[in-house]
Amino acid sequence: MESIALVGDAVVVSTLTTPLAEVASSDATLRAFLHGLPGVDRVGADQRAAALGTRSIKTTAKSQAIDLAISMVDLTTLEGADTPGKVRAMCAKAAHPDPSDPSVPRVAAVCVYPDLVPHAVRALAGSGVKVASVATAFPSGRTSLDVKVTDTAQAVAAGADEIDMVIDRGAFLAGDYTTVFEQIVAVKAAAGEAHLKVILETGELATYDNVRRASWLAMLAGADFIKTSTGKVSPAATLPVTLVMLEAVRDFRATTGRMVGVKPAGGIRTTKDAIKYLVLVNETAGEDWLDPAWFRLGASSVLNDLLMQRQKMATGRYAGPDYFTLD
Is the pLDDT of residue 9 over 80? Predict the structure, then answer.
């Protein structure tokens, strides 16, 4: 098997002794693989992300970037006070972000708790917007595997197209990689045809090396997407962490031939923020990932700013925040 590590701008290929199919055959081989991944240069990652964040995009390219960012948004409501009415209102905005302008693209998905999935499915029928649901004891991930599997199966049975699961960070940080791997495999099986986004909760992983290991662990277990955060822990998404994850999916495809998506979530609030992430994707993983099928923004609050910036570019005037619904 080949492992690929980024060294500056060059890709260096080295041979590993364990075939990929056998990596998870035992706790020892899984641990050896994950700890054998190249270490992340924290200073280098921070500097690279900061440099890419200074790129300036103007005029037509900016207009295209705004529409692309809108099409990548996962509108989300994950509060204890969520109601069917709130979900229906969010779904209406997801399908038609600006009712006064039909040229505005729809968003990629809405994300809700499992019990509200049926309401979202009905509201979005025929719209092309996906319905995602958190599962597996979101946001802590601290419950039995039986509960996680049941939670996932119920959400899919209710019509969810995508499942956002959280890993057990306690198990991961304790070095119990096999438990985390097996839980992802089981949830993936329960999800069936639904896409599985695996939330790493990078704000609790402490190091970029752990982010890289968790990314590879999730992908080896069958994740369709790797996601930074639940949005309930600070820090949530950051450019350097997303850079590490984008390098991981790029290298995973080079090694296995399989593409995996990336979703930064939490803390992305402005159009400028969103465009920084698009630049990061293009320069790190490549333009193949510049598609809602492979990159999402878990950032409900950013949508209104994208809409205001879009209107400013079209008319020369800013619409006030009251022109758009609050989510």
Answer: no
Opening angle at CA 262, ends 258 and 266, nearest 5: 165
| Domain ranges within the chain, ordered by starting residue | 25-323
* Six token digits for residue 8: 């500056």
- Rounded-to-integer distance, Cα 92 and Cα 95, Å: 5
Q: List phi, psi (to 5°) of 196.
A: -110, 120
What is the topology classification, in CATH, of domain 25-323?
TIM Barrel (3.20.20)
- Residue 256 pLDDT more than 80? yes
312 is an active site residue: no
For 13-38, letters b (16+ CB in 10 Å) and e give eeeeeeeeeebbeeeebbbebbeebb
Instruction: State the residue for tokens 């999730």.
Output: 218
Of 130, 148, 188, 227, the catalytic one is 227
Catalytic residue of the set 164, 224, 251, 305 = 164
Is 82 an annotated catalytic residue?
Answer: no
Strand, helix or coil for residue 306:
helix
Tell me the per-residue pLDDT of 153-167, one tens digit each, with 9 for 90 and over: 999 999 999 999 999
State pTM to two decimals: 0.91
Helices (H), ranges, the chain = 27-36, 42-52, 59-72, 84-95, 117-124, 145-157, 169-173, 177-191, 208-220, 239-256, 271-284, 302-315
Categorize the per-residue pLDDT at 277 as very low, low, confident or very high, splitting at 50, 70 and 90: very high
Task: Decide if 308 contacts 318 (C-beta within 8 A).
Answer: yes
Q: Is 164 labeled as catalytic in the residue annotation?
A: yes
Cα separation, 291 vs 307, in Å, equals: 19
Given the residues 130, 148, 197, 263, select the one marked as catalytic.
Answer: 263
